[in-house]
Amino acid sequence: MKRPLIIAHRGASAYAPENTMASFLKAIDMKSDGIELDVHMTKDKALVVCHDERVDRTTNGKGFIKDFSLNEIKSLDAGSWFGSEFKGERILELEEVINLIKDSNMMLNIELKNAPILYEGIEEKVIDIISSYKMEDRVIISSFNHYSLIQVKRINPRIKTGALYMAGLVEPWVYAKSIKADALHPLFYNLLVPEFVKGCFENGIMLNPFTVDDERYIAAIINLKVNGIITNYPDRAIKIRDNLGGV
């Protein structure tokens, strides 16, 4: 059986505050094959790791990331909302996460959060950092903004891209090829249509579904021989995968 990569969604975010060092370290401890994270840009053009366009949900601050400087955003507590033991966790710069995993074999899924707020030049800045660490072959850039994915391919065709979407599209591999995407990152329910998986693989399109947390679905999707599984519970997915076998 093909062995899918287990990709920790915002780190091991079921166990630690999402997109923080605590969450990424826990994903590493659980022997995840990769990390997925989200990138926005501050008003002074720093690339920071956070899911929402606002800091309200996951920090003690309020407002849009685009209106903070890097120093201001670094002063926020990004851990206490999850649990008192995580007080003092900070919003990270993208480069801090790359430094964390650069000497490992882990892959990195960078989601560009380039909508509804548009960050001019975010694609170039992310690619510059990837290239400076020579990590082009260990990164896949995903986004719900598929214009950003087209721009990534224009800048550096070597970097893999994955189109995020949630709708039940017909023949999505045709669309993926039209934007030169290497992979589709669908909401996992889409994989329950047999024609979908068969068509993608026959057309050379990788599948990395999100966010697969229920043990029954994890097992079912592993049996579909997808390329990767994006999950908040990497330990759970690794255990199921290894029990099912594979190479």
Descriptors for this entry?
247 residues, alpha/beta, TIM Barrel, ten-stranded mixed beta sheet, 9 helices, 32% helix, 18% strand, globular
Write the layout of secondary structure elements.
Blueprint: E1 5-9, H1 21-29, E2 34-41, E3 47-49, H2 70-74, E4 92-93, H3 94-101, E5 107-112, H4 122-132, E6 139-143, H5 146-155, E7 160-165, H6 172-178, E8 183-186, H7 194-202, E9 206-207, H8 215-223, E10 228-231, H9 234-244
Parallel strand pairs: 1-2, 1-10, 2-5, 5-6, 6-7, 7-8, 8-9
Antiparallel strand pairs: 2-3, 3-4
Helix pairs in contact: 8-9
Structure notes:
With 247 residues, this protein is α/β, with parallel strands linked by helices. The chain has one domain: TIM Barrel. The protein is built from nine helices and ten strands. Strands 1, 2, 3, 4, 5, 6, 7, 8, 9 and 10 form a ten-stranded mixed beta sheet that branches. The mean pLDDT is 96.
What is the end-to-end distance?
7 Å
The percentage helix is 25-40%
Task: Supply the number of structural domains.
Answer: 1
Instruction: Specify the CATH homologous superfamily.
Output: Phosphatidylinositol (PI) phosphodiesterase
Mean pLDDT: 96
Number of strands: 10
Q: Please give the CATH architecture.
A: Alpha-Beta Barrel
| Global outline | globular
Structural class computed from helices and strand pairing = alpha/beta
Task: Please tell me how large the radius of gyration is.
Answer: 17 Å
Low-confidence stretches: none
Q: Biggest β-sheet, characterized?
A: 10 strands, mixed
Elements, N to C (H/E): EHEEHEHEHEHEHEHEHEH
The CATH class is Alpha Beta
CATH topology heading? TIM Barrel
Residue fraction in strands: 15-25%
Enumerate how many helices there are, as a single number: 9
